């Protein structure tokens, strides 16, 4: 909301723009409106998968397993279709040592992102250390793009 306020002020040539703290204080003190992050937001799709009875839960699990089996079979039969799972594995500290002072020295964190192709049973690992990059969404996305390019080349 504060960003919208700033845009409004800039578009209407208002010279004084209040800081975010002042903006928040005015809303909370004068208008009794609080800024809170929702504790648990769920969309309609997520609510659909929250069963109310044991029968619904069993039915949803059966649907999920059938969909998963269908996707695996499609991945095996159709070479233009890829079913893959991925995970950021445990952070590896380098150098690994059990000896006194070396154990407590600053270590270099190494990240290992693994992607497994369920159809071809091939595994791709992407490794980097904290000096090169962090373990943010952009790095994970880069690894996924490299995996997709590799799959397109080999198909």
TrEMBL record:
It comes from the Eukaryota. It comes from Psylliodes chrysocephalus. This is Uncharacterized protein.
């Amino acid at each position: 909301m504060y960003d919208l306020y700033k845009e409004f002020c800039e578009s209407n040539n208002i010279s004084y723009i209040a800081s975010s703290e002042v903006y928040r204080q005015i809303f909370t003190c004068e208008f009794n409106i609080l800024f809170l992050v929702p504790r648990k937001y769920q969309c309609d799709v997520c609510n659909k998968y929250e069963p109310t009875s044991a029968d619904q839960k069993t039915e949803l699990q059966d649907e999920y397993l059938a969909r998963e089996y269908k996707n695996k079979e499609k991945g095996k039969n159709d070479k233009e279709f890829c079913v893959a799972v991925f995970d950021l594995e445990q952070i590896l500290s380098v150098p690994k040592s059990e000896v006194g002072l070396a154990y407590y020295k600053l270590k270099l964190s190494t990240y290992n992102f693994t992607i497994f192709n369920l159809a071809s049973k091939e595994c791709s690992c992407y490794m980097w250390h904290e000096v090169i990059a962090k373990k943010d969404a952009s790095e994970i996305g880069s690894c996924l793009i490299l995996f997709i390019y590799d799959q397109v080349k080999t198909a």
